[in-house]
Amino acid sequence: MKMNKRIYLDHSATTGTKQEVLEEMLPVFTTNYGNPSSVHSFGRDAKKLVDQARMRVAKALGALPEEIFFTAGGTEADNWVLKGVAYANKNKGNHIITTAIEHHAVLHTCEQLEKEGYKVTYLPVDSYGMISLEDLKASITDETILISIMYANNEIGTVQPIEEIGKIARERKIYFHTDAVQAVGNVKIDVKAQNIDMLSLSGHKFYGPKGIGALYIRKGTKILNLILGGGQERGRRAGTENVPGIVGLGKAIELATENIDSHNEKLLKMRKKLIDGVMEKIPYTRLNGHPEKRLPNNANFCFQYIEGESLLLNLDMKGIAGSSGSACTSGSLDPSHVLLAIGLSHEIAHGSLRLTLGDDNTEEDIDYVLEVLPEIVQRLRSMSPLYEKVKGGK
Ligand SMILES: *Cc1c(COP(=O)(O)O)cnc(C)c1O
Fold first, then answer.
1. CB burial string 161-178: b at 16+ within 10 A, e below
2. pLDDT score of 342 more than 60
3. What pLDDT, on a 0 to 100 scale, did the predictor assign at position 245?
């Protein structure tokens, strides 16, 4: 029955935890609940599980286990990198390079550092959301201590030339961090081959639990600790380990990287159907983000003459869950900083819709969206005096 149908197309906001992941986590709550710092067998068992998860994360990234540190999510990992590298390398310089389209976890931390006297360059992006390597090279100064550029954008899906950025950073001996929260499970990552010094990831974006993430820190990187307290995580990140979360993260990243090819193939097929269908059926529509260099699950549109919020509410009434801008910006009336950065006007940016596919979606879901969405857009436009005028003039 169509009325009861619920279709989740907001996988970039979060994903559900996979059954196999949950099954590995459950005994850690009830029977294997030891504290990894304890010397007894309960503690040793828990420590073994944490070590196993660390190995799984390391393997997925091409890193060493001792280069993986668990955090409470992507936001903490981003905060840790920016503050930790800025404070630890103050004597070397005070300049950080990032982009205008980062997640707020990076942008708001950079703003805080600016208040503390650091200088931050926010690289612009082109209309596809891509940075220019020439801009990057030109912005490097003798004071530059860190380049932090996201792997893939959470709103428009654009994937940056990470390997090339890594090469530039390495040549100039500047640390390179990438927020890969959206990339893990969608893109193949190899921190060594790509010259990545630090990388943030988050469990709930690839079918693991919420509130757990990790930061990869290349051996030898100068970075201060962010969370102080006990000696957990080899003295680098204090606080009793979230053992169930860590176990879940380890299982989820293993599944996500093992299945990456079949996952991508399925998503790309569905996404093509979705994008082609929307562009064909709905006039005055723009596809945001890069046509090819984008996450396999991301479709982001702007529909002229309508308001994204009313579109979302109408879709929700039909059981379709999408998003306008990122989960963090929805609820505010400002258009997304990402859509403004790719050069859209406030007016156009307000009519945006992000649909992000996931492993639980089917071709039938796309058929349903292609049936419902054009009707809703048409109805909302018929209430817009501007649209009536444009139509009348044609
Ligand atoms: C979701 C997200 C984050 C934040 O991760 P949390 O684990 O939710 O704190 C950071 N960066 C990007 C690109 C994201 O999509």
1. bbeebbebbeeeebbbbb
2. yes
3. 98
pTM score of the predicted model = 0.96
Closest-CA residue to 54 (of 228, 261, 241): 241
Q: Which atom of ligand 1 is nearest to the CA of 76?
A: 9
Distance (Å, rounded) from C-alpha 316 to C-alpha 313? 5
Helical (H) or strand (E) element with 320: strand 320-321
Tell me which residues are annotated as active site.
328
**Residue from 10, 101, 154, 204 whose mutation best tests the ligand 1 pocket (most atoms within 8 A of CB):** 154
Q: pLDDT tens digits, residue range 89-100?
A: 999 999 999 999
Per-residue HEC secondary structure of 232-296 comes to HHHHCCCCCCCHHHHHHHHHHHHHHHHCHHHHHHHHHHHHHHHHHHHHHHCCCEEECCCCCCECC
Give me the residues paired with residue 279 across strands: none
- 215, 71 contact by CB (below 8 A): yes
Where is 145: in which H helix or E strand? strand 144-148
Of 71, 75, 107, best ligand 1 pocket probe by most atoms within 8 Å of the beta carbon: 75
**Helix residue spans in the chain (DSSP H):** 19-30, 41-61, 74-88, 104-115, 133-139, 162-171, 232-235, 243-258, 260-281, 308-317, 337-341, 346-349, 363-382, 385-393
Question: pLDDT digit string (tens) for 86-133?
Answer: 999 999 999 999 999 999 999 999 999 999 999 999 999 999 999 999
Tally of residues, the chain: 394
Residue type, 94: N
